[in-house]
């Protein structure tokens, strides 16, 4: 009997000891954030993601009327995202302001910002050195905050039979070296390249610097004031072509977006494949090839920026808050719905 009692005591002691050790281990694990593994698949138990950022969660939203302006590429964001911001924060009043003279665009917006006509501006290109210098001369600095990714898409007539262009071929067309579609694998048809003028927007400036590499437009280029007018001309002109922000081109019903490549053996479309026939438009529209834009596989991409004046005044607060709103999960989702690519 005494041996049985001793065994029982030993078992009870062991159970109590294991319980104490287990409790201590659990306390240590919780305090040191040790991750437990799922016995079924030896994988860590999922960690809860932080609450999704929304506009309403951002503090210190300024009150007042804030003029802003700049890039025409930003129009879909202004129409959709900014409207949602105003719904949540009616006291943060945003008013888009056109220039008194000249066409709206990234460069014009930055100039208006330098001249104290805007609280902040929107740009489809980075700040230039001379713009930084002008700001310093006026006693403040400029800051660019990237908020989205965009691509440059090439629009052609729907009846043009061509598989795509390389970036070098695109350059040669716009500087006047290539003048017939037959030279790039298409039909025997004269090319009519359209463009806005260099001083009329960040998209043209970006194209000039990154595709033309500073070379001048050829004599064959026809200048046209707006993207809307250019797309109408291409729909009528079998040999026409035009470049613009991808969301302005990819979902259109009257023009065809053209695949581009760094080399001729790999053309990447700016739209999700398979291509949706324009005869099915507008019931179905082609969608942006967001994965190719975000990965850099598509050869001509850029970032969109909020340009902020760093002067320790309300204008700086307004610009930084606006950029912060666009960088919330809610802002990024709305940006994606307008046709641009999330930057985070």
UniProtKB/TrEMBL annotation:
Ranges for domain PBP: 69-321
Keywords in alphabetical order: Signal
CDD domains: PBP2_phosphate (cd13566)
A Pfam family: PBP_like_2
Cited InterPro entries: PBP_domain, Phosphate_ABC_transporter
Name this protein carries in UniProt: PstS family phosphate ABC transporter substrate-binding protein
Species per Swiss-Prot/TrEMBL record: Pelatocladus maniniholoensis HA4357-MV3
């Amino acid at each position: 009997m005494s041996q049985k009692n001793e065994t029982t005591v030993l078992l009870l002691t062991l159970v109590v000891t294991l319980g104490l050790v287990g409790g201590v281990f659990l306390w240590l694990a919780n305090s040191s954030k040790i991750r437990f593994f799922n016995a079924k698949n030896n994988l860590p138990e999922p960690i809860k993601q932080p609450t999704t950022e929304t506009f309403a969660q951002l503090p210190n939203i300024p009150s007042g009327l804030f003029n802003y302006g700049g890039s025409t590429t930003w129009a879909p964001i202004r129409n959709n995202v900014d409207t949602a911001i105003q719904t949540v924060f009616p006291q943060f009043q945003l008013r888009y302001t056109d220039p008194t003279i000249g066409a709206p665009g990234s460069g014009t917006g930055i100039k208006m910002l330098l001249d104290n006509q805007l609280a902040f501006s929107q740009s489809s290109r980075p700040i230039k050195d001379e713009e930084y210098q002008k700001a310093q001369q006026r006693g403040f600095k400029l800051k660019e905050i990237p908020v989205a990714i965009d691509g440059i898409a090439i629009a052609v007539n729907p009846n043009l039979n061509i598989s795509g262009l390389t970036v070098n071929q695109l350059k040669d067309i716009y500087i006047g070296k290539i003048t017939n579609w037959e030279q790039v694998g298409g039909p025997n048809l004269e090319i009519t390249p359209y463009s806005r003028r260099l001083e009329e927007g960040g998209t043209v400036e970006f194209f000039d610097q990154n595709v033309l590499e500073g070379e001048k437009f050829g004599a064959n280029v026809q200048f046209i004031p707006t993207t809307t007018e250019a797309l109408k001309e291409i729909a009528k002109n079998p040999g026409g072509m035009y470049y613009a922000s991808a969301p302005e081109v990819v979902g259109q019903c009257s023009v065809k977006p053209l695949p581009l490549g760094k080399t001729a053996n790999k053309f990447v479309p700016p739209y999700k494949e398979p291509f949706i026939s324009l005869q099915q438009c507008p019931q179905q529209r082609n969608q942006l090839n967001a994965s190719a834009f975000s990965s850099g596989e598509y050869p001509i991409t850029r970032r969109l920026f909020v340009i902020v004046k760093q002067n320790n005044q309300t204008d700086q607060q307004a610009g930084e808050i606006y950029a912060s709103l666009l960088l919330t999960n809610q802002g990024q989702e709305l940006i994606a719905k307008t046709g641009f690519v999330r930057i985070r």
